[in-house]
Write a structure and sequence with these properties.
The chain is 31% helix and 22% strand. By secondary structure, the protein is of the alpha/beta class. The longest helix has 14 residues. The protein starts with a strand and ends with a helix.
Length: 224
């Protein structure tokens, strides 16, 4: 039987929001909240928290999930993404890596479950599932617009359907992730998030914004 293992990577080093994964967030923590969401998602064989943070280890153990002590080398900010991703895949105790980030705290439980169903239903056509956010913005590079004609500026809703990887959810075969050193397969399928679920906590403004939205939407909304 194929084992889908939810990997939750968290590290203690955070320059913009010190200790953001374990700091107080609306009466809980970002890590607690993510583990609570995952606890009700069907199809997951095991939840693993990969971390170098003692506080996060304690949270994970209190939640009854597997703790994987990450080597300092792989927890450092100098490690490139390909090395980080390959290490995560190599240390996943299962067949399918379902990597989910605590820095995307507004991804609903139902969305996690839908992502698993989409991945399983499309295996004949796609080899990974990756969450993305729509980018209806007027984009420029090197002094030139790259997604519209400056002489015929469209309305924002008529801009091309460009999306960006937000890395909130990744589902990919473990062996493929090791081979590629990436979370994106050769034929990825994208699951598009709305603005709420796309919120990513990168700095203190993001942290406060996410906390405010969560308090407004409520726990029941997130756990639906």
């Amino acid at each position: 039987m194929t084992r889908i293992v939810a990997m939750v990577p968290v590290r203690k080093g955070s320059q913009r929001v010190p200790g953001k994964n374990a700091r107080a967030f609306a009466g809980t923590t970002l890590l607690d909240l993510k583990l609570e969401v995952l606890s009700g998602v069907g199809g997951i064989s095991e939840v693993v928290v990969s971390t170098d943070c003692e506080e996060c280890m304690g949270i994970a153990r209190n939640r009854g999930v597997t703790v994987q002590v990450r080597d300092d080398h792989y927890a450092g900010s100098a490690v490139s993404n390909d090395i980080h991703w390959r290490h995560i895949a190599e240390s996943t105790p299962g067949d399918i890596v379902f990597m989910t980030q605590v820095t995307s705290p507004l991804v609903r439980r139902s969305t996690h479950a839908r992502a698993i169903r989409l991945y399983q239903d499309s295996l004949e056509r796609h080899d990974s599932l990756n969450s993305v956010s729509p980018e209806k913005k007027f984009l420029w590079l090197d002094g030139k617009p790259i997604n519209y004609d400056i002489d015929r500026t469209p309305k924002s809703q008529d801009l091309p359907d460009i999306t960006s990887l937000n890395f909130a959810i990744t589902i990919i075969d473990r062996a493929l992730m090791i081979e590629r050193g990436n979370v994106v397969g050769r034929t990825p399928q994208f699951i598009v998030f709305d603005k709420l679920e796309s919120v990513d906590v990168d700095d203190m403004t993001d942290f406060v914004t996410a906390e405010s939205i969560f308090l407004q939407q409520g726990r029941d909304w997130l756990l639906d």
